Amino acid sequence: MAEQSLPSEAELTDEQLEMLSRVGDVRDVSEGEVLYRAGEEGFAFIAIVDAEIEIVGGVLEKEIILVSHGPRRFLGELGLLTDERSR
User: Fold this and answer.
1) Global pTM?
2) pLDDT at 1
3) What 3-state class would DSSP assign to 19?
4) Helices (H), strands (E): how many in the chain?
5) Of the candidates 85, 86, 55, 87, which has an alpha carbon nearest to the alpha carbon of residue 70?
């Protein structure tokens, strides 16, 4: 599967980043750090400010990059921004 990125409509606006900064924590991450794993419940909404995050699949012996997310992208349920329930 080829690496993909989301269309620009999926980028957070300045207003959304400002709102998130008021209610969330800003922290650095280390290269190779796992933010969450498939199947985990209750993971946080993660807004990417100045980094690139890779979503990987496969098995440890042969992981592949499924998607890369850069600045202004996010990981997590969009409903946290729109105040809607997950479906």
Assistant:
1) 0.68
2) 47
3) helix
4) 2, 4
5) 55
